[in-house]
Amino acid sequence: MSTKEVGEGKFSIKKFFVYLVLVGAGLISLFPFYYMFVMSTRLNREINSVPPPFTPGNNLVENFQKVTDSIDFFGSMWNSVIVSSTITFGTLFLCSLAGYAFAKLPFKGKKVLFALILVTMMVPPQLGLIPQYYIITTLGWLNDFRAIIVPGLINAFGIFWMRQYIEDGVPYEIVEAAKMDGCSNFRVYWNVVVPMILPAFATLGIIVFMHVWNDFLWPLVVLRDPSVHTLQVALRALNDAREMDYGMIMSGTFWATVPLIFVFLLFNRLFIQSLSEGAVK
């Protein structure tokens, strides 16, 4: 056997173990979601049995019916869709605009201002809960989607992410060529920069959408009327019963997670492209 064949054999064995580890890690990561689905198809007495069941049951529809009888599930989901989509698109636009300014436009105090923005990432968001609540009540935005949407339209991480991506992914020569052709700064951003940073949009969009969709504390504080509850706040009402119905709770949680999976699968290709381009650079 030649040295080349031995090397190829070793390489194949190495690849096999790498794939084995990746498949195992993937299955471990998916198991909580699978078991949540299993619990959403079972009755309480089956969930509490020993040993617990690991295969789906026959009560998926029945448990979901209990959810819709207890809360306005679809109304709350629609509220979450409106809030999450609005904040996501607003964040993508504003953060990419700010990132372009920090990456490609010269102005006084740019480095200091960018450093101050990064410092805000070190401050826990809970510290701003009381002053933010005071501002919202002063503006009269309680029980209004503006109380969630306006504070979430821009964030330090989004500016940092866009600035870094535009800095490395958009050459200065292209920006300068567009300006020589008579483009304004905004037109350079819209017609030149935006088409070149679609993977960064996908990555930041997934992160922001998932964060807003799963946010519980701030919507709980400012949205008291059940008609404007987001889905995570509405699901809290399922825990108020004297006897916990785990099948019903897991059914609501399972169906609340499905839109996140759909969004991730929809932008998965651009998300992976963004990460791989960053690794190459």
Report on the structure:
With 281 residues, the protein is mainly α. The protein contains 15 helices and no strands. It has helices spanning 3-40, 44-47, 60-70, 73-104, 110-120, 129-139, 146-149, 156-169, 172-180, 185-196, 198-214, 217-222, 231-236, 246-266, 268-280. The mean pLDDT is 87. The chain crosses the membrane at residues 16-37, 77-100, 112-133, 145-162, 188-213, 246-267. It is a multi-pass membrane protein.
Contiguous uncertain segments of 5+ residues: none
Strand content: under 5%
Helix and strand sequence: HHHHHHHHHHHHHHH
The CATH superfamily of the domain at 71-240 turns out to be MetI-like
Integer average pLDDT: 87
Number of strands: 0
What structural category do the secondary elements indicate? mainly alpha
Number of helices: 15
CATH topology of the domain at 71-240: MetI-like fold
Main sheet record: none
Short note summarizing the structure:
By secondary structure, the protein is mainly α. The protein contains 15 helices and no strands.
